[in-house]
Amino acid sequence: MPYPVFDEVIHEPHRLRICALLVPSAGTEFGAVRDEMGLSDSALSKHLKALTTRGYTRLDRAVREGRQVTTVVLTPAGREALCGHVAELQRMARIVGTDRRTSGLRPH
Question: Exposure pattern of 20-56 as b/e (b: 16+ CB <10 Å)?
Answer without folding.
Answer: ebbeeeeebebeebbeeeebeeeebeebbebbbebeb
